[in-house]
Amino acid sequence: MLETTFPRLLAEHAARRPDAPALREKEYGIWQTTSWGGLAALVRDLAGGLAAAGLQRGQHLIVIGENRPRLYASMLAAQSLGAIPVPLYQDAVGGEFVFPINNAEVAFAVVEDQEQVDKLLEIREQCPQLARIWFDDPRGLRHYDQPGLAALDALVEAGRAFNAQHRGHVEAEAAKAAPHDVAAMFFTSGTTGNPKGVVHSHHTLLDRARAGADFDRLGSSEEVLAYMPPAWIGQNIFSYAQWLVCGYVVNCPESAATVTIDLKEIGPTYYFAPPRIFEGLLTSVMIRMEDAGRLKKALFHHFMALARRVGPDRMDGRPLSVADRLHYALGNLCVYGPLRNTLGFSRVRVAYTAGEAIGPDLFTFYRSIGINLKQLYGSTETAVFVCLQPDHEVKADTVGVPIAGVEIKVTDSGEILVKSPGLLKGYYKNDAATAEVLSADGWYRTGDAGFLDAGGHLKIIDRAKDVGRLMGGGNDGAMFAPKYVENKLKFFPYVKEAVAFGDRREQVCAFVNIDMEAVGNWAEKRNLPYGGYADLAAKPEVYELIRECVEKVNADLAADPMLAGGQVSRFLILHKELDADDGELTRTRKVKRGTIGERYQVLVDAMYAGKSSQFIETVVRFEDGRSGSVSADLKIADVKRFPAVKRAA
Predict the structure, then answer these.
(1) Which of 583, 633, 588, 626 is nearest to 611 (CA)?
(2) Residue closest to 38 by CA, chosen among 13, 75, 58, 71
(3) What pLDDT, on the 0 to 100 scale, is given for residue 370?
(4) Which end of the chain is less crowded, N or C, counting CB atoms within 10 A of the terminal residue's CB?
(5) Which DSSP letter does residue 124 get?
(6) How far apart are CA 432 and CA 445, in angstroms?
């Protein structure tokens, strides 16, 4: 059990290894390093500035921006005073900040740049208590003259002056913190209704961070690239809580556009990303292979066939024949090694994916080329780490075994319950919601459906509320797991997003979003002209491409007796990409299935009515805040289904 606090861990690293690198940030193409000693001094100055501004113990400080050293330092500064940092998603529109700010009665904000300042100024009338806003990057803000708005540099200067007059104040406040005091609050994605503030203590976050670090033998020598939103607890645990527990180096990319380059420059040893990142990387690889010469393409496909056959066994430590070992070594020299280097994974010792289920084929691809990609299971409410996959016990269809301190049980209805030292203290100002998920004897209701296999590994089927049954027709009573179907569709590089419908219906139908880059590249190679997403999505040739993908998924489903009835019967390609700004995805890019079903009800009805096409007009929101509409007459396509494969007795 790790009984400490975030500020105490910072002080220990600064005392033991003041000159060791703690953070790196890339600015203008050059990596700048902040040492543990330098970070501790910056945190002290920022804490002094926040104290001078009036931030009190128990109050909230919102932090909005990409991963930036001074934003991390601001969170530590707030914790040093007993205040509570609340990271919010930097890509959210201003209106999405109103509820969290008012719910948490926030008066102080630290943000990255002009974009975030503009959002807060836009909603200030709706959040009258928001008195002070400090910004890290001054570009574009020179002539701003709003009350309470200042640069983070000014806060640092004010802190130095405060600390000179009140020596030892910050250290004394930090020493008051106890492990079970509130350390941070994370707002959920809000797939239905307003987001909920998940309250965590120093103990819940750091205990789970230590359990995860012990499980994979992580130490101070690790290199991590932090590029996912800090408001997502997954990123926050890996690049903040575990960073302070282990003392490794966290690297902050220059921008979202340079992440791929920065990944290769840093060569992380410990990597974490949701499935969509791995999907995107694989898509880029497949697009490049489409452009390769005949010999390179033949070599790639030859060695990838070998990798799929023996790679997973090799990663799991199973014996291989001499011929396979030599053949794989040649493949490693010609294909796998260069491919890992291209992806930036040459030094990765442990890689994790979480946030949602990853397609088995996608997962196997990475492990087959020698990347130790594993799955974990957890949530915001559990401080992430519930189940992890041990080395040499990695299965594509499970999420690992319960780690130290965790108990799991499955209810008669199939819902997974968790007991863990990492469970939330509660939902902020929402006792009713807390009572719904936390039982009196300490069990957390995950809302996920699944089971423990014979080896003690947890298998997730879907969200419990989403698992349904088909009704009527030849599939009456067949299980329908929409996420399982959607993930199989999304394995194909041409499918960016999918939404499946079928609960209490006679058949399964699906919406598909094509991947503009992958399908655009495919179209250009076939001299197929198009004038944008909607035009490309409507092409008959593209419909045939997606039909082939759907039919391959159906063939896979036919091999699973439990899910064979859930094959897709009809699909359409949406005329626009699903977007978080339009309320169709969460900020972590999870599909809001209910919202989509309501918004596109006319399309759902048309698919089930047997229509071959349906006109629709949709209101969309552009990046600059303007609204507009897009319309199209969407084709609805039928798909071949396959008889269920009977397994031998």
Answers:
(1) 633
(2) 13
(3) 95
(4) C
(5) G
(6) 14
Q: Which own/partner pairs from 558-562 qualify as long-range (CB within 8 Å, at least 24 positions apart)?
A: 558/641, 558/642, 558/643, 558/644, 558/645, 559/645, 561/644, 561/645, 561/646, 561/647, 562/479
Residue of 349, 375, 377, 356 lying closest to 364 (CA atoms):
375
Distances (CA, A) of 499 to 13, 191, 466, 584: 47, 15, 12, 11
- Model confidence at 60, pLDDT cuts 50, 70, 90, reads very high
Query: Which SS3 state, helix, strand or coil, does residue 263 take?
Result: helix
Q: Are strands 249-252 and 21-27 parallel, antiparallel or unpaired?
A: parallel
> Which ranges constitute the DSSP H helices of 85-150?
95-103, 114-122
Residue-range domains of the chain with CATH: 6-257 (3.40.50.12780), 468-638 (3.30.300.30)
Q: At what angle do helices 69-80 and 36-53 cross, to 10 degrees?
A: 60
> How many angstroms separate the CA atoms of 288 and 418, rounded?
43
Nearest to 497 by CA among 582, 413, 428: 582
- Which residues make Cβ contacts (< 8 Å) with residue 318, sequence separation at least 6? none
CA gap 527, 569 in Å, rounded: 30
Amino acid at position 228, single letter: M
Count CB neighbours of 601 within 10 A: 10
Strand 350-353: give its sheet, edge to edge. Answer: 270-273, 350-353, 373-377, 387-388, 401-402
Structure tokens at 5: 């606090």
> 403-431 b/e with 16+ CB inside 10 Å = b?
bbbbebeeeeeebbbbbbbbbbbbbbeee
Give the contacts of 527 (CB within 8 A, at least 6 positions apart).
none
In 9-83, where do the E strands start and end? 21-27, 30-35, 60-64
For the cut 90, the answer to whether the pLDDT of residue 513 exceeds it is yes
Each residue's pLDDT tens digit, 479-507: 788 888 888 898 788 999 999 999 889 99
Pairing type for strands 613-621 and 627-638 reads antiparallel
pLDDT tens digit string along 439-474? Answer: 999 999 999 888 888 889 998 877 777 778 888 766
| Residues constituting the chain | 649
Q: What are phi and psi of 447, to 5 degrees?
A: 80, 0
